Structures are given as structure tokens and as C-alpha cells.
Amino acid sequence: MTFHIRALITALLLLLTAQSCTFIDDDRSDCEDTYSLNYELKVVSNINLQLSEQLQVSTGSMTLKALNNYFSPIMQPATSEVRLGFFPTDGDAPIYYSLHTEGRRTALGISIPADNYRHIAVIGQADPSIFLTDTTMAATVRLTQFLNDTIDSHNHAILAGTLDMDVLGNVNQSWEVNLYPADASVSVVLKKNPMVRRTRVFLADLATSFTPNDSTWHWDHNSLVRTDAIDVPGTDSVAYCGIAFPSRADSQVTAKWGRGITAKNVGKGTESPSNDAVWRIIVLNDMPGGSVTRTVLYVRKPLRAGDVRVIRVHVNDDGGVDTGNSNVGASVTLDWKKGGEYNPEI
Fold first, then answer.
1. Closest CA relative to residue 320, chosen from 345, 283, 280
2. Cβ distance 245 to 173 under 8 Å?
3. What percentage of residues in the chain have a pLDDT greater than 70?
């Protein structure tokens, strides 16, 4: 009797061992049957068309060429690392793939077990200032930029797509996932003024992280985004270009800036912001003698994900900046002194 019990226990242990599976790189292929899918990623973006519409110029424009040369390799890279997450709706462990895309359309072969999934595809973790938080739940997958007072412009587009997938066994299935931009492009174009020694341009009040599952942006820190200065060949213009997360959709949360003028306020140490602004552009001009003129542009039109925004401004001899754009207000502080602000790097 004892022998039979021991034999039965041994047989059960062997059966459990044979049916057990390992979780290596989230691969469940040795746990259950997997099925091959025809899977295609498509980037939904056209940076050149958007720039043409913003500038309202022909394709031969030197400004258009300069901006396109800057934005296109970042927003529409030839190759990108993509992170694919398949999250079973029953709460089982997710399956991840890290692959590379080629161009705006990439066909991939994917093998996963039959199940109902919430699928998330993201591009952007190659940017050294962005980190991707992978979790066991689709709802908490998050892309976050460094939470510093001043950060560099994104150097790789952040794109994301989601899809609910019911993967069936022994059935040929094809899936197409559209990847949409999660950040936006801004360019402030100005003509050089010989009275200005140096110009710096920053973007303010923009989001700092993004959760793809519900397409929600978050404000975790008050960060400025430092733009890159791009000379426009054959002209005396410079384009200050930045790529960052979008702004809020309205000015509700910016009401704390106070109520003031919406055009221009020139003074010493004074600043009266627009009460309906959604996000800001900060321009610092170093003047002869060591003084700094600070202009804050208050933008009323929200900066949305995928937007390409070109704002032309004029630099006055005192270093102040103004624009003819009716959606942008300005306030100017002559002989500006840094102090009591949350962005010490500027």
C-alpha cells in the first residue's frame, strides 16, 4: 500500500513538472499554444504637410526646409525601437516584445497565446530623457520625461497606439495598429537683432508624462523645455525649435497667473500675464552691458499632441519680443533679474 502511494505521488510530481512553464522575457510559448498573427504598425503623421500649412509657403521656402530638416528625422524616424505590450484582460501576466520598425509602415510576425488582450504599442523610450514604466496592467504603462526644472527638447518622437485584441486559436488573423504622436512640435522664428548678444527660448506649462492606455497627459513637475537654435540658410532668421508633450486643453489651471493685459507690458520688473493663456514661451535676450530682457509669450490656443506650431516674432532694440499673432499675448521685463523662480538653470 505504501509503495502504491509513493508511486502515485511520484507520478503526480512528474506530471506537474512536465506541465510547468517558465517566464523568461515574458515569453509564454512553453506554457501554452501560441498562434502567429499578421501584425502591422502604421505611423499616422505628416510633418512636412503640417509645416507647409503653418508657414503658408511653397516647398522651396528656406524656412520650411530648415524646419523640415530639424523635425522630420525626429518625428518620422527611419527606424525606431517599439515596445509591444499584450495585457490579458483576465489579469494574467503580460507579454512584451521589443522590436524595430522601418519607415512609417512595418509588418511584423507575432506569436502569442489565444486570449483577450488590451494591446499597447509605444515608441519613444530611445530618447535618453524619457523612461518607460512597464507594469502588469495596461492602465499604468507610462512614459515620463526627467522631472528637472529645465530639460532638453525630445530627440525622438513619442508615438503610441492601443487596440483591443481577441486572439483566436487556429484562425488566420490580421491586425493593424495606428501609432499617433504623443508630443508636439514648436518653432519660434525670429530675425536676428544686432543689439542682442544671445537669445534663449523655453517652452513652459507643458505635460511631463503620458499614459497611452487612456491617452492622458500628466503634470508631475514645473519644467521648462529648452529649444534648439536652427539657422535658416540664406537669411538672417533663426528658428528656435522644441519637441515636448502637449499643453492642457484650456486655461482653467493657468488662472493663478493673474489677470492682466493681453498685448504688451514694458517695464522694469513688471509682468502682467494673459488670464486666458494655456501655455507660455519664455524668451531671454542678453543685452549689451550684461542686462537681460525677458519676454513671456502667452499662448491662448492649446498645443495638442501631433501639433506643429510655428510662431513668428519680432525682436525690438530693447530686447523685447512681440508678435502679430492674435492668439499670443506678450509681457516684457527690461533688466530682468532671476530670482525666486522654479527654473534656476535659465
1. 283
2. no
3. 80
Look at the alpha carbons of 76, 82, 88, 92 in this order and tell me if their dihedral is positive or negative. Answer: negative
Question: Is residue 119 exposed (0-12), middle (13-18) or buried (19+ Cβ within 10 Å)?
Answer: buried
Per-residue cell: 248: 492642457
Rounded Cα gap, residues 115 and 165, in angstroms: 8
CA angle 38–44–50, rounded 5-degree value? 160
- What is the rounded CA–CA span in Å between residue 138 and residue 118? 7
φ, ψ of residue 109 in degrees (nearest 5): -100, 120
Are 158 and 207 contacting, i.e. CB atoms less than 8 angstroms apart? no
Q: What proportion of the chain, given as a percentage, has pLDDT over 90?
A: 55
For the chain, what is the largest distance between any 2 Cα atoms, rounded to a whole number of angstroms?
Answer: 103
- Point out which residues pair with 237 in neighbouring strands: 191
Q: What is the mean pLDDT of residues 324-341?
A: 85
For 156-203, write each residue's pLDDT tens digit: 999 999 999 999 988 888 999 999 999 999 999 999 999 999 999 999
pLDDT at residue number 343: 53
Asked if residue 16 has pLDDT above 60, the reply is no
Which positions ≥6 away from 172 have C-beta within 8 Å? 38
State the CB neighbour count (10 A cutoff) for residue 212.
25
Q: How far apart are CA 115 and CA 11, in angstroms?
A: 31
* End-to-end alpha carbon distance in the chain: 83
Between CA 203 and CA 224 the distance in angstroms is 6
How far apart CA 242 and CA 154 sit, in angstroms, is: 7
φ/ψ (deg, to 5) at 75: -80, -25
Q: Which of 32-46, 222-236, 303-317 has the lowest mean pLDDT?
A: 32-46
**pTM exceeds 0.85:** no
Q: For 27, which DSSP code?
A: B
Top pLDDT among 218 and 338 is at: 218
E strand segments, 224-327: 224-226, 228-231, 237-244, 266-268, 279-286, 292-299, 308-315, 321-322
